[in-house]
Every structure is written in structure tokens, then in C-alpha cells.
Amino acid sequence: MRSKSAPWVLMAPFLLLFLFTMVLPIIIAIVQSFLTVQRTGLVGEDGAVSRFAGLENYLAALTNQNFTDSILRMLAFGVVQVTVMIVASTILALLLESASARWPGLFRAAYFLPYGIPGVIATILWSFLYVPGLSPIVDALGWVGIDVDFLGPNMVLWSIANIVTWTYTGYNMLIIIAQLKAIPADLYEAAKIDGAGPLRVVTSIQLPLIRPALMLTIIFSIIGTLQLFAEPQVLSSMSSGINSEYTPNLSAYAYAFQYNDLGMASAEAVIIALAAFILSAAALGISNRLGRKS
Amino acid sequence: MRPLVPRRTALAGGAAALAAGLAACAPTGAGKVNAEAVIPPSDGPVTLTYWAWLKDLQKVADKFNASQDRITVNATWIPGGNAGGYAKILSAVAAGGGPDIAQVELRSVPEFALAGALTDLSRYGFADDEKDFDPGAFAQIKVGDSLWAVPQDTGPGAMFFNKDVFEGELGLTPPKTWDEFRTVAEEVTKAGKTLMTLDPGDGSVLPFWAMQKGSVWFEPQDDTWVLNMADDPTMEMADFWDGIFADKLVSTGYGAFSTPWYAAAGKGDVLSYVGGSWGDALIETVPGGKGKWAVADMPRWDDGYASGGLGGSSAAVLSTSEHPAEALEFLRWMCTDPDGIDAMIENSGIGWSPAADYIGKSREKASDFFSGQKYNVDVIEPMAKGQNLDWTWAPLMQRIIDRLGDGMLDVVGGGSTFTKMLPQAQDDIAEIMRKIGLKVEIAK
């Protein structure tokens, strides 16, 4: 009988924290997304009432062009950046795990290193390579007649993509390597006996067997893309291409912490969460269908 | 065999927690405090809490604490306003708690009043203190007849410039008018340098320029806000900057005091900064700048005022404070007493003094960094005296500044001009203000 209550007692510290820092804030955010505050008087001195707003906040969020633009921007960003990053991570992982790799430990650590640098610091570092007049890259390109403005309105999104790719490729590579290491050695032996070359091993053994890891990294990356925040926030003071609602999260942040409009911020946060959920589910669905076909 | 907590109790508990959560997110009785009876001064000793992002504020409070034995002030550092400080203050007030006093930027004061977070100090006799304050500072905490905070520092505009390069190398003199500013900018650009840089997304320079030109963008009339963001003075100012931007006479690559700015200013490639007087402390950190920089008046128009105001903060008494009278007593000391001003300058590095006739002891001396100039007395003080006292900040100022900043990005990107953008921004801003229930009219 005692043993029945023991797990609950032991889990209580976690459960309480989980309830009060995860579940409750989510519920409050959802409730708040349906509320709006109306004020009267010059500066609200005649009172304020909080009232049920139905879907008003959601409609306002979805008709806020800055917000919808930011979602479309992140979709374009994700299609390019996530693809490039996952392909790069996979290639690096396969190379480091191939029999002919030299010093795999050293390179693994080197590729992983950028992940240890906080996003804000990484962005400041990269900004020195982007800002015209300071950047040796811009100077060097100028000498050969190429004029680029990495922080211009059309380029800055891809400059951010570059920073994100630089930061996370090594991290995703590690996840894939972990899965590669879990492939039983006898599979490789059998392939060798059957006369499979290194390429054949990659396409017929390694790639199919690391699919779960690839899925995981892709879903993490989709969610990460929707939550992009620090990089555009830091670059905004140097780029004419970044407005105050450049990414969905920046928009929700502005409404919550700068405009004190919690209803709108909550509605945007819920929309971001739903979008991440739908996109992740779609990625899983595609993967399952492909898995069944092969 | 039975579960530790019967299911029904668990559900009830969950519902109670949910109800508590809901109660927390209802707005506090905004304005209620300012309609109830004033809270009389306390008989016994009082302890006040004070949240601000000024550094070493406790050292300032300690001076006050030592000067009398009734009131004790405890200062707590919080992150800067938009970096999370405001969210922290507003959440605390919404939950019915929070400190007695909090730092609020001057332009955000009406926004805090709107959120029901401030005590109207006119009800505690603060109007009698007006004579002790710099009029330019006092005007900024006033909305109609209400006094929403105690001004703590201001940022009268001036022009900081690299005299060594500007006068020595290029043989130019600091521009007295905006027309001269344009001519000088052309010369500097021809010499392959940059006169000034602007953060392309920072809209706060627009009200700064407009108030100097003599416009009053937000005018409270009875219970209505009248917007004048596209009046004649503003349009003249907008037209001038359209010309400057079209000819690329200032750089919009990065804002002042950003990392690339320091690198360029250190090399002598960016020559000036036209902005708040608090810029002096930041310019003093330009590498190798000592003795080379100087300060001049803000370039001005034929009409309008000598200067505008950029930045500055207030110390506001929150609506949840149980000791507004004592809080005001402390703030009176801190913001007008020479001891308080000197302590704030020495420890916290505040901007321009909010007091009527005291600029701070250390500021009366000549500055080694700024070419031996007594710039505070000779330049900043007249700039502080030449402010547009009719200017009033509106609620939702942060949103308004962001809207202007986004408009400015369009101008920088070549998709618009200030003369086109400002009337559009005015329409949007009127709509945003109306949406939360304020009465707004656009001046014809």
C-alpha cells in the first residue's frame, strides 16, 4: 500500500514545478488570448475593464501584416536553412564516422564548439564580419568588384541563416553520430561480405537507419526556426532590414513586454505554438509515408 | 489502494489554481487608487522599496537614509525598461505587489499611468514642488493636470563632435542651423567621412526633431488626444530629412554607440552625434578620443526651440505603494536637493539634472575629454532651458516609436519618404489608440 503512494511523493517536487511553471502558464496564456482590456479617460484614469474578446485577438494577430509577414519569412527561412543545415550535419557525421576519418574526436569537438557560444555573442561576433567598413569579407569582395551589403533588407535574412547554421550544424551532427554509433557492427560486416562499397553502405544501411535521428533534428530545427529571436534582435540596430516584428517571437515579445498588450501577445504565442505543432506533425507524416514506401 | 488524493479533490484543487491564475491576469483597478482617499503619512518608521536599472542606486539611497531616521529606502536593480524591467514592474503591480518606487522612462510615464500602475502625485501636493524642478523636466511628467512621476534626469539635445578632425583636418565649423548642417554634411561626405549615423529602426529621433521644430504631436484636450503628427512644422522637418536621406548625407548603417559606431568613431570616420546630453558619458569611451571631442549647440531652425529632449527617466510612485507621501518625500530630496543630485551623478551617472538651479558640482568644471570645455555650463544648460514645454508624451509611446521606426526602415530602404510616412503612421497610431478605448482626433 505504501508503495502506491511512494511514486507520487517522490515525483511531487517535479510535478509541482511542472504544474506551476509549465502547465499553469500555458493555461493562463490561452485564457489571456481571449481577453482584452478597455480603458477610458486620457490615460485610463476613469477605469479599465477586462472583457471576453472571443477571437478578436486572434483576428487582430492574423490581420497584423507585420506578424503574418514574419511567419511567411520564417517559412522561407526554414525551407532553405533547415535543409542546408541537416544536409551539412549528415555529411559531416558520415565523414567523421567513416573508416578513413583521421582524428574524429578532434573534429567532432571542433564542429560542436560553436554550439557552446550563446546566440547573442555569436551574432555580435558575426556582425563584425557583416558591417561594411569593418568587415574584412566585405572589403575583400569589394576588391574583386563584388558589392554586398550583408545587412541590407534583402540579404539580412540569409546572414541570420548563416549564423544559425554555423551554431547548430555541429549540434545536429552529434545527434546523428550518436545514432550512427548505434548501428550494429555485424550489419557493416554483412555488407562488406556482400561486396558493398562505402557509398552503398551509406545509402542502404546508414541513411535508412539514422532516419529517426534525422527526424528529430528536423523537428527541433523547425521549432527552433519559428522561435528565432536573439539573432535578429541583436542585428536590428545595424540593419535596415529588421523591423520590430521581424520574427513571430519578436512580435509576441514586443506586444507582451513593450506594448503591455498581453491578450494580443498570448494570441500570437498560441498561433506560433500551433504552427510549430502542425509543421512538426506534417514533417512526421511525410517521414512515415516515405518510410512505408521504402 | 486508494489514490493519495481523491480524484474529486484533485479536480477541485486544479480549478482553484486555475481561478487564482485567472484572477491574477485581470487588470488591477486602474485609476481606482487615484479616486480613493489619499493615504496619510505614516506615524512610525517606514521602509520603501525602489526598483531601477540605474547602477549603485543604493549608495544614493544610503545618503538619504543617513540624513534622517524615519524613512529607509532599499534599492533593487532590475533590467532596463524594454529589456524586461517594465514587464517585471507591471506584472508585480498586476499581482497587487511590487515596490513603492520604480524607474520609468519619461516617455513611458503615460503608458504606465494607462496601465493603472502609477499614483497621481498631484494629489500629494507635488504641484507645489514645480518651482524646484527644471521646467523642461517637469513638463514631461505632466498629462493634463495630473503629475504622474518625479523627473529624475533628462536628455536635452546637443551636438557632440570630433573637433580634431572636424575643425583641424577638414576646416569646418559646427553648424548653427540645420541648413548649415546640410552643407557641412556635404563637405564631410566629400572628404570620405560620415557626419552622423542613425540606427535605421529607431524611431525616437523623430519626436526629438519634431519637438524642437515646435510641433506638439500629442495634445490632451479634455478627454481626447489630438494628434498633430503631420502639421506644418513636422512636415517642414520631414522634408529636410528626406533631402538628407535622399542624398545619403548621414549614414543609416548602424546607430550611435553600437559596436561598429565605436570602431568608426575611434578611427575618426564618424564625426558627430546629435542627441541627448547623456551621450557625453558614452562618447568619453570612444577609444583615443580624449581631448579631441567637443560639444556644440544642437543645430536649430529659424523658428521652434533651441533644442529637443531625447531620453531621460523618472522615478514613479506605483499605485500599489502604501506610503506615497514618504516616497514623495524621498524623491523630492533625491531629485532637487544638491546632495541627492550629486549622489546620483557620482554613483549612478544620470543624465541632465532635473533640478531647477543645480546642474551638479562635478559638472561645473572644465572637461579634459571635451577639449577643456566647460560644456555643461556653456552648452547643455542653455539647451536644457530652450525646450518645448508644450510637448506631452502620449500613452502607448513604445508602440508609437516602434511604428515610426518601422516607417523609418521603409524610408531608409527607399520605399517611402518621411513626408509620406508620417501621415500614414499618424492614421495607424490613431487606430491603435482607439482600439484600447482612448478618444483620438487627428488635427485638421
UniProtKB/TrEMBL annotation, chain A:
Topology in membrane: Multi-pass membrane protein
Pfam families linked: BPD_transp_1
PROSITE patterns for this protein: ABC_TM1
Annotated ranges, domain ABC transmembrane type-1: 71-283
Keywords: Cell membrane, Membrane, Transmembrane, Transmembrane helix, Transport
Principal location class: membrane
Entry keyword annotation includes Secreted: no
Positions of transmembrane segments: 12-35, 74-97, 109-131, 151-171, 209-230, 269-286
The protein's name: Sugar ABC transporter permease
Organism, scientific name: Brachybacterium kimchii
Lineage: Bacteria, Bacillati, Actinomycetota, Actinomycetes, Micrococcales
Automatic annotation (TrEMBL), chain B:
Cell cycle as UniProt keyword: no
Keywords of the record: Cell membrane, Lipoprotein, Membrane, Palmitate, Signal
Signal peptide limits: 1-26
Keyword hit for Ligase: no
Domain of life: Bacteria
Matching InterPro entries: Bact_solute-bd_prot1, SBP, TAT_signal
UniProt-recorded name of the protein: Extracellular solute-binding protein
Organism: Brachybacterium kimchii
Taxonomic path: Bacteria, Bacillati, Actinomycetota, Actinomycetes, Micrococcales
